[in-house]
Amino acid sequence: MAKTKFSGTGVAIVTPFRKDGSVDFFSMRKLVEHLINGGVDYIVALGTTGESVTLSNDEKIAVINFVVDEVDGRIPVVMGVGGNNTQDVVNNLKEVRDENLAIDGVLSVTPYYNKPSQEGLCLHYREVANACDLPVILYNVPGRTGVNMTAETTLKLAGEVVNIAGIKEASGNFNQINHILRDKPEDFLVISGDDPLTVPMISLGASGVISVSANTFPQEFSLMVKYALSHKFDKAQLIQNALLDMMDAHFVEGNPAGVKASLCLKGIAENNLRLPLRNVSEKTFKKMEALMEELEGKRKNLPLD
Questions:
Q1: Does residue 252 form part of some domain?
Q2: pLDDT tens digit string along 227-273?
Q3: Quick check: is 1 in a domain?
Q4: Residue 222, domain CATH
Q5: pTM (two decimals)
Q6: 31: nearest Cα among 234, 295, 259
Q7: 3-state SS assignment for residue 128
Q8: Containing domain of residue 62, as a range?
Q9: Domains contained in the chain, number
Q10: Known catalytic residues?
């Protein structure tokens, strides 16, 4: 199983919407080309950033098929398939198999809201992995789900389930991250799930990032990660420092509201979300506009070649 295809910069892509709330496939094509031209290593569709919980099943199938067709084998595509009902997740994965979707892996978030025990998480992910022939990337994001998957649970799954390829780790807990990195199987990938923590996590042994901010800044993010993976941390830090304020702005009023605002400023997609999410405030939008202009001025001093 080629787990290394998920090293480097992955992007959790937004799902663009028109003003009437329908999926904007024209803008999605622009986004995919923007990302590939920017040098990203793989795309993750239908994750949290893609507002997947607001999409119907038919819309999800249409989105993933569109992304796969547009990518056309140039880079891997990962599909987000998660939830807090194990049987539903298993059924969705069987549908992925039956539809013969041309995807390269699955990203599956820990069950949210119902707060399973660590044993429950282990059993859940075993069922998920058994339902899927593809590499599975675990996703630990306790700030959103209400449950933290411990290092012990992650390592148990990594060591015992052959098609669990890695974890998108977004706990922000460096002690936990250190334990996973120290004790993991050699080919198990630890992927940053926090944009601002990407360079420090790579310095400890992480394999890259699944990024939100790279929707808007794929070239900058991809090069930052490449420099860090090559131990050129001085260059990586220059790019991170330049992006830091914008990364903060992307999350100050929630994700993907922030990154959809910056994609609008870039002219890639309209600034539309589905409820219960709403657009960032005018104050934040104007701040992002100023940061975008400031970042353009900094580009000549960044190692972007």
A1: no
A2: 999 999 999 999 999 999 999 999 999 999 999 999 999 999 999 99
A3: no
A4: 3.20.20.70
A5: 0.96
A6: 259
A7: helix
A8: 8-230
A9: 1
A10: 139, 168
